[in-house]
Design a protein that fits this description.
By secondary structure, this protein is α+β, with helices and mostly antiparallel strands. Helices cover 41% and strands 18% of the residues.
């Protein structure tokens, strides 16, 4: 399953949200009138490193704002949180305070992470403010449609607000928890196979271990596992098909080894088929939404002609299907992926 390390673009351009996507977001109630914009959070003077509870550098930075700017931002951020979580009902933030704003300088969309705390019981939550990127929004929407996961976000002009996705970072899980004797290793391997299948069909790229989380749910007789993507910046942009197959990233080697140890070819095919059937069920139930998303994505360029040419050749070889050479856009490729899955399930 594992081959050479996959090379991807160091810096994918941020694609503006086109008119077709704006119309789609309004139709499906993803838009909102936010009290602040992403650029308002850039008004800091300097930053200091953000450390975890063990004193280690998290690679995030804490922006330092003038007092009057900080007070205004904190009030606005509480309203944003109410819009994200409760359709704007500010009663849910009456006892909450913004404890910390963090800034990530190395991400594509240079996100801000906001920590909000209930002062009555110290329960806290996070949410994110990011630059609006059409690629990322399409990734979020496809995650909503194709995967078993729901996503919660709001868009307003150049600003994207996202809910925090809870889970153990994949790289942390791989280093210290994947071999936990209380965990059924076969269940973890099964989930990685299914996650791999979802990514290649929905064309979600760069799913290295630190770009997804492991969610663990105790069941009455065992633990259930689900891998959830948390980074959607590399949605159908790259031309190398391996970018859309998590199995090829060296950061995911522990998951690949686990799959090779606990699964055989027959069970891998079985789990792939299970995931394809689930995708077909979801696509059929959301057929109007995925059609509207397809129509929106056809109205703007979301990659380069070179990447499209290379990727359609990659998928033609991967699926042994010459029809991919007739594709003219990333949207055409992903639409053909879905049609192929429907045909395979019907056989």
């Amino acid at each position: 399953m594992q081959e050479d390390d996959v090379k991807i673009s160091r810096k994918k351009p941020i694609f503006p949200v086109g008119p077709g996507l704006v119309k789609y977001l309004k139709a499906y109630q993803r838009d909102g009138k936010l009290p602040l914009a992403y650029r308002d959070l850039l008004s800091f003077q300097e930053t200091i490193p953000s450390l975890d509870k063990f004193g280690n550098d998290t690679l995030w930075e804490i922006p330092l704002y003038p007092p009057h700017v900080q007070d205004t931002l904190y009030d606005q951020l509480k309203i944003v949180y109410a819009q994200l979580k409760a359709s704007g009902n500010t009663r849910i933030v009456e006892h909450k305070v913004i404890e910390k704003i963090e800034f990530c300088a190395f991400g594509n969309t240079h996100p801000f992470r906001i920590k909000i705390v209930n002062r009555l019981n110290d329960v806290y939550d996070y949410f994110y403010i990011k630059q609006a990127d059409a690629s990322r929004i399409y990734g979020l929407e496809l995650e909503e449609i194709v995967s078993p996961n729901q996503v919660n976000y709001l868009y307003d002009r150049d600003t994207l607000v996202e809910e925090h996705i809870v889970g153990i970072p994949g790289d942390v899980f791989a280093k210290g928890r994947i071999t936990n004797p209380d965990y059924n290793q076969t269940r973890i391997a099964k989930e990685f196979v299914k996650f791999n299948e979802r990514c290649v069909i929905s064309m979600l790229g760069d799913m290295r271990a630190y770009n997804f989380v492991m969610q663990i749910t105790p069941d009455f007789d065992d633990f259930q596992f689900r891998i959830r993507a948390i980074d959607f910046d590399q949605q159908f942009y790259e031309g190398n098909i391996k970018v859309y197959l998590p199995q090829f990233f060296k950061e995911n080697l522990p998951f690949v080894k686990l799959s090779m140890e606990h699964l055989n070819e027959k069970t891998v095919l079985q789990y792939q088929q299970e995931e394809r059937s689930s995708i077909v069920h979801r696509v059929r139930s959301e057929r109007h939404r995925i059609k509207d998303l397809r129509d929106a994505s056809k109205t703007q360029m979301l990659s380069t002609p070179e990447n499209i040419e290379r990727l359609k050749a990659g998928y033609a070889k991967y699926y042994d299907n010459e029809h991919y050479f007739k594709c003219h856009s990333m949207t055409d490729i992903i639409e053909l992926n879905v049609k192929n899955v429907i045909r395979q399930v019907q056989l």
